[in-house]
From TrEMBL:
GO terms for biological process: cell wall biogenesis; cell wall organization; xyloglucan metabolic process. It is found in: Secreted, Cell wall; Secreted, Extracellular space, Apoplast. The keyword Transferase applies. Glycans are attached at N106. Residues 18-212 form the GH16 domain. It comes from the Eukaryota. This is Xyloglucan endotransglucosylase/hydrolase. Transmembrane segments: none annotated. The active site is at E98 (nucleophile), E102 (proton donor). Residues 1-22 form the signal peptide.
Length: 274
């Protein structure tokens, strides 16, 4: 994403092979929105709120280099047009790296759009968008990222939806040298989020609320040895995962930068050959 923050919680430690379920109190800081962001249920659940005055967000206290991360989210219900719930990893600076989930709000009855993007060395523009095959506001669903030196895999409830492979051999920068924090935010993006900005937020429906919980992560710090982790060396999907990925692409993908010939009349980016 090119705009505001997003991603979630971790009770991660500085060793290389810990599976952790986070407590929001211990491992996350509320970064903006004051009391619009609330930690509930003894640290097991977090709630972000957007009203006409402000949105809200939080970030992890620590930063990490590579990981396998699961977060359950229940998105804003009803008429959420103009809102964005963002959940991502990001480093800092002009040449930053970033891995994004963004959920673009909708008019009541219309599907949410799940927007994904990858930045490496400050360059993004690698958008893929999907409709979801369930109502993401009715219950919690698990949104996952696996990030290792070979690939980045986005998954929903264990179903792979996108794989971005390391294509450094083709001259494409890959996010592997900068540690990143976890961020999440709920904010006003009605200048672009719903039908290109044509549908604005209906503030009579506010406050808008997104909920988070049941976070798990197996991660590395910038200084730890990740090679002991089973996910660290993963390069290829299993056949069942590949079939699920193809099913999502065939039935629910609505935009892929690697097939946008109007945007790339001189030819697609090199990584699109993978």
């Amino acid at each position: 994403m090119d705009l505001l923050p997003c991603f979630l919680l971790v009770s991660l430690v500085l060793s290389s092979s810990h599976l952790v379920s986070a407590n929001f109190y211990n491992d996350f800081d509320i970064t903006w929105g004051n009391d619009r962001a609330k930690i509930l249920d003894n640290g097991q659940r977090l709630q972000l709120t957007l009203d006409q005055s402000s949105g809200s967000g939080f970030q992890s206290k620590n930063e990490y280099l590579f990981g396998k991360i699961d977060m359950q989210i229940k998105l804003v219900p009803g008429n959420s047009a103009g809102t964005v719930t963002a959940y991502y990893l990001s480093s800092q600076g002009d040449k930053h790296n970033e891995i994004d989930f963004e959920f673009l709000g909708n008019l009541s009855g219309d599907p949410y759009i799940m927007h994904t993007n990858v930045f490496s060395q400050g360059k993004g523009g690698r958008e893929q968008q999907f409709y979801l095959w369930f109502d993401p506001t009715a219950d919690f669903h698990t949104y996952s990222l696996l990030w290792n030196p070979q690939q980045i895999m986005f998954s929903v409830d264990g179903t792979p939806v996108r794989v971005f492979k390391n294509s450094e051999d083709l001259g494409v920068a890959y996010p592997k040298n900068q540690a990143m924090r976890i961020y999440s935010s709920l904010w006003n993006a009605d200048n672009w989020a719903t039908r290109g900005g044509a549908v604005k937020i209906d503030w009579s429906k506010s406050p808008f609320v997104a909920s988070y919980g049941n976070f798990k992560a197996e991660t590395c710090s910038a200084s730890s040895d990740c090679s002991v982790n089973s996910w660290y060396g993963a390069e290829a999907l299993e056949s069942s995962e590949q079939q699920k990925l193809e099913w999502v692409r065939e039935n629910y993908m609505i935009y892929n930068y690697c097939s946008d010939s109007k945007r790339f009349p001189q030819g697609f980016p090199a990584e699109c050959t993978r």
